Backbone:
């Protein structure tokens, strides 16, 4: 079936890689966990998931694909939902059952999908997504390369980079390589939301020094330079240099200052 370029459709065709993704999704999870698949497309990954989960709920935006997919798996415990995952109430699909979220997701909506999965209750036990390699690396970034996205994700999940998938493994091949990202959601965020709100101010202009971005009516640039120094953070630091605990310490210190 011809892909829809506007939906970012690229079919992964390597069976070994598909099986590896399914294995990553099904390991270390509750025995009776079900699978929520995002963007099943032609069902190549669905086939591997059905061999490892008692039930697969597949959410597909493309109506023609959603209509055809069940025909490929007669008698299998597959439920196909024609919907936009970003407009879907995941809790109504999975109920109170433990579940895993898996998908080969379109590059252009990677960040919204990750944010949705980490904001939904109940949380998935595990999230395994195939995405643009650059974005996967950005989410797994360490201090010096942090972004607001990496802080948001790492605040709510353990992050692990999985195998790299070369562009030629897809039909049609995308312009860049992909990579599997594995997330293990945490029961509670590691730092409070107020610290991430402060971080969002810090990233308002990533090229500027942190003290300049944080300056407001309450604390001047000079005040923030002092606060940074008191927190043992380089006053010349930029937002990408700080980790989660730095932001929590800054937020706590600013409240007391």
Residues:
């Amino acid at each position: 079936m011809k892909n829809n370029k506007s939906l970012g459709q690229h079919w992964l065709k390597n069976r070994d890689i598909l099986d590896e993704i399914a294995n990553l999704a099904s390991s270390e999870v509750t025995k009776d966990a079900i699978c929520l698949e995002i963007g099943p497309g032609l069902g190549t990954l669905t086939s591997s998931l059905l061999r490892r989960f008692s039930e697969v709920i597949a959410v597909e935006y493309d109506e023609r694909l959603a209509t055809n997919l069940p025909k490929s798996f007669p008698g299998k415990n597959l439920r196909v939902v024609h919907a936009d995952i970003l407009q879907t109430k995941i809790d109504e699909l999975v109920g109170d059952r433990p579940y895993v979220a898996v998908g080969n997701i379109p590059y252009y909506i990677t960040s919204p999908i990750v944010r949705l999965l980490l904001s939904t209750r109940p949380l998935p036990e595990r999230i395994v997504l195939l995405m643009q390699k650059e974005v996967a690396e950005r989410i797994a970034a360490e201090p010096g390369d942090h972004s607001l996205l990496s802080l948001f994700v790492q605040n709510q999940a353990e992050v692990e980079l999985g195998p790299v998938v070369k562009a030629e493994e897809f039909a049609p091949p995308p312009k860049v390589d992909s990579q599997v990202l594995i997330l293990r959601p945490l029961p509670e965020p590691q730092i409070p939301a107020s610290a991430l709100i402060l971080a969002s101010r810090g990233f308002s202009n990533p090229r500027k020094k942190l003290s300049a971005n944080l300056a407001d009516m309450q604390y001047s640039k000079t005040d923030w330079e002092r606060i940074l120094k008191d927190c043992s953070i380089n006053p010349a630091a930029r937002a990408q240099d700080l980790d989660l605990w730095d932001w929590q310490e800054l937020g706590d210190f600013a409240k007391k200052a």
The radius of gyration is 21 Å. The first helix runs from residue 15 to 26. Residues 1-7 have pLDDT under 50 and may be disordered.
